[in-house]
Design goal:
The protein is mostly helical. It folds into two domains: about 45 residues; about 60 residues, no CATH class. Helices cover about 70% and strands about 0% of the residues. The radius of gyration is 23 Å and the shape is extended. The chain starts with a helix and ends in an 8-residue tail after the last helix.
């Protein structure tokens, strides 16, 4: 590889890494500000494993039930699918959502007890 080509590649790569680092630094500063604000008002900050599908109510509760509901159905158009989805959501009882959120508490504790490992194996 030519020296000038290598130099251009290194500059491009280093520039991309610098931009990523700047974004990460900004995110960290924002997170620290939020944490300080929460602590100032006496809120307890609980540990939360990053990117855990075990702790996203949409993943462990909503999507599974929706997938079962839609299983085997075929839709002619996107509008037909949207209509079925709206119908399904409109017919859900308020308790459906309450149960999903409340089940998050026990899943959260299990995940913490497992040191961030998956709750469901």
């Amino acid at each position: 590889m030519e020296t000038s080509s290598r130099s251009n590649l290194e500059q491009k790569y280093c520039g991309q890494n610098k931009k990523r680092q700047e974004k990460a630094d900004k995110h960290l500063r924002q997170s620290l500000k939020k944490e300080q604000w929460l602590q100032r008002y006496g809120w307890e900050i609980l540990p939360y494993p990053a990117h855990s599908p075990d702790l996203a109510p949409s993943d462990f509760y909503l999507f599974g039930l929706l997938k079962r509901h839609l299983g085997g159905m075929a839709f002619e158009t996107e509008d037909d699918l949207i209509s079925e989805l709206r119908n399904w959501f409109d017919n859900l009882d308020v308790d459906f959502f309450r149960v999903g959120i409340h089940s998050l508490l026990s899943r959260w504790q299990k995940c913490i007890d497992l040191h961030g490992d998956y709750v469901e194996k």
